[in-house]
C-alpha cells in the first residue's frame, strides 16, 4: 500500500501490465513469504535469502521493495494491525449491543490469530526487534478500544469504569487466550473459549443470589 | 540454589568462610548483574563481559557458575517465577475471601513488576530466547491459578466457570497491566489500576439495575 500511496513504481514501459499492479503483487509475495519465514524462524535466524526463496523471486528483487529485513518486519507488524482492526470492525460494526460486540470482537480476534500464528509471533517479537512498531500497534488498538468502552459507559450500555485501564485489561484477555492456543497449543474450540471468557468479562467472578 | 543442591562448590580450604556461602554470593551478584544488563540491552546485545563488569568480577569467574549466557538467562526466568509465586502467596496466603485474594494477588504482581522491570522484559524475551523456560514459567503459574479458581468455584466462593480458560484470561489481565506500566510508561498509581481491574474481574461490564 505504501508504494501505491507514494505513486511509485511508475508505469512499466515494456510490459502490458502497469508496473504498479505487478509490483504490488511481487511486494505482497515477499511480505507473505517474510511472514512465514520470520514467524517460524524468528527475526535473527530468518535471512533475506530464505525469504526470497520462499517467495520464489531473486534475492535482488527484495531490495526493489524493501531496504532491509528490519523494514519488511516493521511492515508486517503494521499490516497485522490493519488486518486485525479490519476483521474486528467487520465482525462488530453496527452492533447495537456493546456486550455482544465484545463477544464477536473476541471471536474475530481469536479466529484471525488461529489462522495467522506467524503474524502473532512477529508482533510478540516486535517488542525486541522494533519497539516503536510494537508500541504503535498496541497504542492504536488500545485507543480504539478505550473510545468504544467510554462511549458505551456514557450511553449506559455498560457499568461505568475507567475505560483506559479496562481497555488494556480486555486486550490482555484476548492476547493471553490467543497465546494459549498459538504458543501453548491449547485445543479448546474457539467458540467455547469465547463463551467462557465472555461470561467472565460480562458478569465477573462474583456469585449472585 | 542449583549449586547448593548439587553440593558444589565444596568447603574452601584457604579462607575462613565456607566457599558455599561466598560462592553463592558471587553467583547472586552475577545473576543480579545479568538481570540488569540483559533486561536493558536484550539478550543478543548483552555480552558476558558487560555482565561481569556490572557484577564487578573477572570475566572468567562467570564460567565457574554458569556455562553460557543462555544458562544465566534461563536461570533468571526460573528465578522470576519463584520470586513472583513467593510474593503472591505471601500477599494472599490464608485469605478466606477469594475475591479479595484476586485483588491482593494482582496488587502484589504489579508491585513486583514495577520494581523489577528488567526481569519482566526478560520473561517476555524468553519466548524467543528460551521457549521451554517461557512455557514452563506460564504453565506453572496457570496451573496454580487454575487450581485456586476450581477450588473456589467448588466451594461456592465464585460463580462456576471453566477454571482453565479463566486462569489464562486473568493472567492476561495482570500481564497486560504490568506491560502498560513497564513498556508503555503508564503512570496511573498501582492501587488505582488494581481497583479498576478488580471491579471488572469481580462484577464484569454488565449494567445491573
Automatic annotation (TrEMBL), chains A, B:
One of its GO terms (molecular function) is DNA binding. It comes from the Bacteria. Pfam families: TetR_N. SUPFAM superfamilies: Homeodomain-like, Tetracyclin repressor-like, C-terminal domain. PROSITE patterns: HTH_TETR_1 (PS01081), HTH_TETR_2 (PS50977). Residues 24-84 form the HTH tetR-type domain. Residues 1-24 are annotated as: Disordered. InterPro entries: DNA-bd_HTH_TetR-type_CS, Homeodomain-like_sf, HTH-type_Tx_Regulator, HTH_TetR, Tet_transcr_reg_TetR-rel_C_sf. Keywords: DNA-binding. Residues 13-24 have a biased composition (Basic and acidic residues). This is TetR/AcrR family transcriptional regulator. The keyword Disulfide bond does not apply. Residues 47-66 bind DNA.
Amino acid at each position: 500500500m505504501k508504494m501505491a500511496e507514494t505513486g511509485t513504481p511508475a508505469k512499466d514501459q515494456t510490459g502490458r501490465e502497469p508496473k504498479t499492479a505487478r509490483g504490488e503483487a511481487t511486494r505482497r509475495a515477499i511480505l507473505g513469504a517474510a511472514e512465514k519465514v520470520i514467524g517460524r524462524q524468528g527475526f535473527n535466524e530468518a535471512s533475506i535469502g530464505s525469504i526470497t526463496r520462499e517467495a520464489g523471486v531473486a534475492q535482488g528483487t527484495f531490495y526493489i521493495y524493501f531496504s532491509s529485513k528490519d523494514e519488511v518486519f516493521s511492515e508486517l507488524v503494521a499490516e497485522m494491525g490493519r488486518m486485525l482492526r479490519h476483521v474486528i470492525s467487520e465482525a462488530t460494526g453496527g452492533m447495537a449491543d456493546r456486550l455482544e460486540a465484545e463477544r464477536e470482537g473476541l471471536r474475530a480476534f481469536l479466529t484471525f490469530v488461529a489462522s495467522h500464528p506467524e503474524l502473532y509471533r512477529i508482533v510478540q517479537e516486535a517488542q525486541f526487534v522494533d519497539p516503536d512498531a510494537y508500541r504503535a500497534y498496541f497504542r492504536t488498538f488500545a485507543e480504539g478500544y478505550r473510545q468504544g468502552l467510554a462511549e458505551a459507559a456514557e450511553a449506559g450500555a455498560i457499568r461505568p469504569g475507567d475505560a483506559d485501564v479496562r481497555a488494556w485489561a480486555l486486550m490482555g484477555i484476548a492476547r493471553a487466550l490467543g497465546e494459549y492456543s498459538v504458543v501453548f497449543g491449547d485445543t479448546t474450540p474457539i467458540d467455547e473459549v469465547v463463551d467462557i471468557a465472555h461470561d467472565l468479562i460480562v458478569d465477573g467472578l462474583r456469585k449472585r443470589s
